[in-house]
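Notebook entry, structure prediction.
Reason for the run: the old model in the group folder had no record of what sequence produced it. Starting over properly, with the input documented here first.
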Amino acid sequence: SPFSWQTTFQDGGEEVEDGAVYNVTLKKVQIQQAANKGARWLGGEGDQLPPEHTVRQYETSKIRAIKAGTLEKLVENLLTAFGDADFSYISIFLATYRAFASPRAVLELLLGRFGNLETSNQGEVANLNSLESEMVLRAEIASVLRAWLDQCSEDFREPPDYMCLLKLLDYLKNNMPNSDMESRVQNLLKQFQNQEVEAVDGFCSTSSSDLVDGEELEISSPEEFSSFQDHVVAEQLTYMDVMLFRRVVPYHCLGSIWSQRDKKENKNLAPTVRATITQFNAVTKCVISTILGTRELKIQQRAKIIEKWIHIAHECRILKNFSSLRAIISALQSNSIYRLKTTWMCVSKDILLMYEELSEIFSDHDNYLTSRELLMKEATSKFANLDSSEKENQKKSQKRLQLQKNKGVMQGTVPYLGTFLTDLIMLDTALQDYVEGGLINFEKRRREFEVIAQIKLLQSSCNSYCLLPDQKFIQWFRRQRHLTEEESYKLSREAEAAADTNILSPKSQKSMVKRISTLFLGTDVFTPPKEQPLKGSPVGGSSGESTDSASVSSCEFNHSETEDVCVTPISSPEDPLKKSSVGSDKGYDSDKGSISSDKGSGSSKGSICDAGSGLESGSVPSKDSGSVQSSTPRVLPVYNRQSEGSCIIRVSMDGLHASVYKSILITNQDRIPDVTQRALLKHNLEPDTVEDYELVQVISEDKELVFPRDANVFYGMNSHVNFDFILRKRA
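New structure, fully documented this time:
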């Protein structure tokens, strides 16, 4: 071709207006064109034409992207962003605005200030001197409303009054009568009014109210469980996971919203995320109850059940269901299961290798790089990309995969949601909501949208699944009575009483137990009380429902939720599982879903994922920086490492709440009163009682570092041990 294009971008600085700050980028396009038709004969082809035989033209355009502004300016920008070449702005705003505004506030600004053309004689509309300008504005508003209904129709579900939908309908009747959009809003209103409140967790609830009359919760017999084929179980778990994941409302995952879930008034907050977590916990508990629930099982029989669950996990991998895959691995790595040393010795070598490879998917190495890369690699692929270092497993995997391909139906991808919850919570912790002048920091929302866009992509991929419910299995799954932590550990001791002496001391065992639910449900990680590890853990307890870095917990369940991960059972020198430990030496990690341990000492310490570990360096400010964007890329603060004058510490409350911690961002400017006040707020305590508390860093089991009242925490802390702190009432 005689034409060639080359595009370059140049930083154009900032533009400041009343109530808004914009980033400006200059886009320069160079168009190279042959000077005459004979140019090719003179030695040039395409963009290799000699300079003397080409004509270069330059076109420069300006891209303006709002980085901070008042709510009014952000809403106004919905109408002008396209003209500023900020083409993704509307999608970013709609996906994240719930963090700083309500649907009603945005709708009133959009329709009241910009859409009321007939009655407005001032402001923006006063400058519209022609009917053509009014038509353009009306078209822009219609475009925004259409995108809102397309992308976030759930924003208008406000029973029983539906005030926003009625307001929108009134606007359309006056300004766009008999339009397609008016009909669409009327239909949406009828749909909401006719729908009963959906039980988003209907697939996984184990309460008796969800059972058919006459049914009771029960421990499954091994024969009944064995009657289900491995691929059928995996398909049904995937069916349930897909139904729940597709219903997840992306803004429910925002850190500013999810981190508020443990407050009493927010018990119904983010129900679509809670439902996904409940299902994850139900799968984990089901695995444990089938292995331990029947006392009469012989060791070989129990080993067969473990083998079956490993096969089911492998089938989940083939189906690209990383949620149930992680739940199963989490359960197998739970305290009560991995301690069954003799039982694990009866598991065949090939299956142990398969288990090891599946566990490696959630390795915490390099910030869970394996699971992150694998997830995005397979997000849009038609089928799983299976690879095994063991020849026999490779043959089985390829055979099963070929059966899937022969069906001719594409597969979606179900992620482990805790990974995204962790990233969003850490973004919320690291980046401030407002910048100088009280402007909303929209750069933060752009960063959050990068994560939300991945969730939406995976939700879209789930439409490729073609799975049908098997009511026999679903009813069986619902009927399962889940063991409490105390029950499961007691049954595990009965099955192999002597195993403890070779694996864990009672003291070590206490700190190993993590909760799978803390995974998503909380901003805290929940560990058993120090006195007696498993005593009285309620099945649906809420005391641990939080973790500031969302993680999956192990599987000694309690409906608290973390996003940590389990690691393989701790091994003695003769332990056949010793090669399958995939966790870090620090234990429970946010993106893995399993319990890990200190290999050297035989003990482990629960943790929520390394705060911010899922985030790459980028041009983002710290929460306290006071600016929208730093001039050079910086690494976001993380747990257990001081970097660029900031870090993240974990603060737990002494006494009743000793096992629950909150992740707190501190800088080199923070002193004891500042950190204490933030910790009290995070723990939902009165912040004006700062003087009543002292902050203590835990150095070891028998050593503490007590800070003076006005000490600088960043410089005073011991940076060579875990950044774990306790807030204690002064004597």
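Summary: The beta strands are 3-17, 20-34, 54-69, 434-435, 439-441, 646-653, 661-667, 693-700, 703-706, 724-729.
The old model has been moved to the deprecated folder.
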